[in-house]
């Protein structure tokens, strides 16, 4: 069965996926069981009931907490404040994360595997073009809906979800700023993830100062000839479509244009695969252009519009990556709660220690505050409000800082176990750390926020 539309996402939300374990050392066996009439809240609880079990590895098996305390989880319930429709596709995303991503995230990380098949399964649920318009194969959902979905998916694998979020941003750029021919050429295969996309802005000499980029695109007849290189590009070498910001005119932001370069174009090549602390399920390479001739028909928008396109893409990208951090933090809080209930020291569970209770309370508070900021910014961006840029920057700054702190604190509260790769906590720490750097570093977020205040 294939799912490639908003209606499919909604419909699948009415199904429930049941899971069982043969033993703590056996592989996970996935069972599909229908639960007619089950409410969205009940379905969500059933999904979260498996979250801790699926994400806490112990010597290749799975570690189950002795019992669950839904009262604790309810105060950080990610479905709070959502309508029934949003709860349903949130349920779909949680189920997909638990079934397809969480059992594999350690292997993807250790072997540096780019999980093409699993991402295409996600696209069948409508997650390849979440906020792309439906006439070109997208799901047509809102920015808030998108944040909800990425939070849920990131509980299963933060690194893979972050790549999916970048892919979505590229598809949205083409859908929003491309002409009809470009939209219908590029968006359908991106929405199904038959083809994958990468966003190419950062260069070796221009990171935070993106407007100073040097990659050139000189027009020669009906082609642009590109020369230069891009750095730290997620998906590079594996992606089929590269949304490239390059210089077609004067220095500064007004001389930048957006051009789509397709894999296989003569003159397009890639650097070595980077060795990273985290984000290992997505390859990162330099993208190199050497007399790379691209049709003028591949220019998105007008000449000189590229910097505006890049920044508008990043506003949504900042909410998306913050949502990925949120998913990692949510999973970390649940795992820590379970660990405190199970782990005994000095003759009693760690959960009885008031110091650790207070730590857990702080983590939960930071988590919920981050979620509220992200969702507020998502609504502002959807409504195209004047404060949207500042709110997106605030949400990215606050959530990526706080959610990394939550993951790091969770590792500390797991003690020595948290530092073992048999446990998921350390991977959430490694995968969420880079979110404070990319899509505009958090130092740049502070610049944007202060600029917004001082210009009033």
UniProtKB/TrEMBL annotation:
UniProt keyword Transmembrane helix, yes or no: no
Cofactor(s) essential for the protein: FAD
InterPro entries assigned: Acyl-CoA_DH_CS, Acyl-CoA_Oxase/DH_mid-dom, Acyl-CoA_Oxase/DH_mid-dom_sf, AcylCo_DH-like_C, AcylCo_DH/oxidase_C, AcylCoA_DH/ox_N, AcylCoA_DH/ox_N_sf, AcylCoA_DH/oxidase_NM_dom_sf
Keywords, in A-Z order: Acetylation, Branched-chain amino acid catabolism, FAD, Flavoprotein, Mitochondrion, Oxidoreductase, Transit peptide
Active-site residue numbers: 439
Gene3D superfamilies membership: Acyl-CoA dehydrogenase/oxidase, N-terminal domain, Butyryl-CoA Dehydrogenase, subunit A, domain 2, Butyryl-CoA Dehydrogenase, subunit A, domain 3
Catalysed reaction, written as an equation: (2S)-2-methylbutanoyl-CoA + oxidized [electron-transfer flavoprotein] + H(+) = (2E)-2-methylbut-2-enoyl-CoA + reduced [electron-transfer flavoprotein]; 2-methylpropanoyl-CoA + oxidized [electron-transfer flavoprotein] + H(+) = 2-methylpropenoyl-CoA + reduced [electron-transfer flavoprotein]; propanoyl-CoA + oxidized [electron-transfer flavoprotein] + H(+) = acryloyl-CoA + reduced [electron-transfer flavoprotein]
EC code(s) of this entry: 1.3.8.5
Residue ranges of every copy of the Acyl-CoA oxidase/dehydrogenase middle domain listed in the record: 199-292
Gene Ontology MF term list: flavin adenine dinucleotide binding; short-chain 2-methyl fatty acyl-CoA dehydrogenase activity
GO cellular component, one term: mitochondrion
Annotated pathway: Amino-acid degradation; L-valine degradation
Localization terms from the record: Mitochondrion
Alphabetized PROSITE patterns for the sequence: ACYL_COA_DH_1
Described function: Isobutyryl-CoA dehydrogenase which catalyzes the conversion of 2-methylpropanoyl-CoA to (2E)-2-methylpropenoyl-CoA in the valine catabolic pathway. To a lesser extent, also able to catalyze the oxidation of (2S)-2-methylbutanoyl-CoA.
Protein name: Isobutyryl-CoA dehydrogenase, mitochondrial
Species this chain originates from: Equus asinus (Donkey)
